[in-house]
Amino acid sequence: MEPRKFVVPEFVIGEGSLNLAGQYAGNFGAKKVFLVTDPGVISCGWAKKVQMSLEKAGINHVIFSDITPNPRDFEVMAGAEKYLHEQCDVIVVVGGGSPMDCAKGVGIVSNNNEHILAFEGVDKVLIPTPPLICIPTTAGSSADISQFAIITDTARRVKIAIISKAIVPDVALIDPVTTTTMPENITAYSGMDALVHAIEACVSIASSMITDLLALEAIRIIRKNLKNAIEYPLDMEFRDSMSLGCLLAGIAFSNASLGMVHSMAHSLGGYYDLSHGLCNGIMLDYVFDFNFESASEQYFRVAEALGLDLNGLSYVQKKSKIQENLISFKKSIGISQSLSEMGVTKEDIPLLARHVLNDPCLVTNPRAPSLKDIENIYERAL
Fold first, then answer.
1. Phi then psi for 309, rounded to 5 degrees?
2. DSSP assignment of 311-364, as one string?
């Protein structure tokens, strides 16, 4: 076995983890915390609970919540300006993937003194972020434990990926209770995001025995619990399981990277400002169809984790059964839209496809597509 490095932050998972925010900020010697969140999380009361934890620990804080879904470059820059102006020294973020990605961006800009778009790509962040504590309120993005940050370049209308071990959070406080306030569609979309993380980690050309172990277990957990978490949002058995599945998928993809589903979703989300998890769900089976011949053995393992029995079937039948299952599962959680129903037009596809070719997640896809391949896949999903 060749030497291989894996990155995972310290994490605490379980009900009540959120209340440890003040203790952990104190462990980093915080004098003034930059608390990143968004209006929805504030209205649910989770930001207030974090504030109370910080106050109990005697730590001052300032709130930054001017963040929209699919966080914009200018939001990151405004956050960094406020962080520096307020002379903060630790970042705490409570929210879904958007606030967490924005918080990572704030940390990058604050310590590296360049525009956030300068860090697009792999290993461009030279100076690590200030101490970063993440408290996720969704079970999907895994931004709380990953070395990824996704920011929208508003001029180009494309999502950029920043991938660096320097932006792995220091601590993740994963409190499944915070996920009970997610709307039904957000539970579905974030859960689909987590499922795609696990599947793409499994078929990534950078996968490993360790990431496979985590990704396959994540698939089993998410497949078993996501629909129930949508139907019974206050049942903590399902919320606990989804938080665990999301965590395992996140550790897997953070260390194995992703693939073309995410690259295509980033392009769609950046251009049309669409939900990332929804875009992943729409594209999942189309990319599976393209990738299958280059990663069939890995997909057979995914199928087993999904609970499929492929014994006695031909190669073609196995492929068909897996694809049909992916389609039926996403429909069962409310993802049945076509791209055209989401406002995508055939005229935009060439530009969308060019953005996909530049996305770093494409590097680890099991099959290298041409520009025409990507255009064809988008057209099939219209």
1. -100, 110
2. TT--HHHHHHHHHHHHHHHHHHTT----TGGGT--GGGHHHHHHHHHT-GGGGG
Place of tokens 């409570």: 94
The stretch 216-242 carries a mean pLDDT of 98
pLDDT at 54: 98
On the question of pLDDT at 1 being above 90, the answer is: no
Please state, in angstroms and rounded to a whole number, the distance separating the CA atoms of residues 187 and 190.
Answer: 5
Which secondary structure element, helix H or strand E, spans residue 90, and what is its range? Answer: strand 90-95
Mean pLDDT of the chain: 97
% of the chain with per-residue pLDDT over 70: 100
Considering the entire predicted model, what is its pTM?
Answer: 0.97
Beta strand ranges found along 154-290 (DSSP E): 158-163, 171-174
Q: Helices 184-203 and 296-305, interaxial angle, to 10°?
A: 140
Query: How many helical (H) and strand (E) elements, i.e. helices and strands, does the chain have?
Result: 14, 9
pLDDT of residue 2: 84
Longest CA pairwise span in the chain (Å): 66
* Residue 310, C-beta contacts closer than 8 angstroms, at least 6 positions apart: 300, 303, 304, 318, 321, 322
Give bridge partners of residue 162 from the DSSP assignment: 121, 149
By CB neighbour count within 10 A (0-12 exposed, 13-18 middle, 19+ buried), where does 87 fall?
Answer: exposed
Starting at the earlier edge strand, list the strands of the sheet with 32-36: 10-13, 171-174, 132-136, 90-95, 32-36, 60-64
Residues 80 and 72: beta-carbon distance below 8 Å? no
Q: Which two tokens stand for residue 342?
A: 């989401």
Got the DSSP string for 32-56?
EEEEE--HHHHHHTHHHHHHHHHHH
Angle of helix 315-332 versus helix 276-291 axis, rounded to 10: 170
Q: Is 265 exposed, middle or buried (0-12, 13-18, 19+ CB in 10 A)?
A: buried
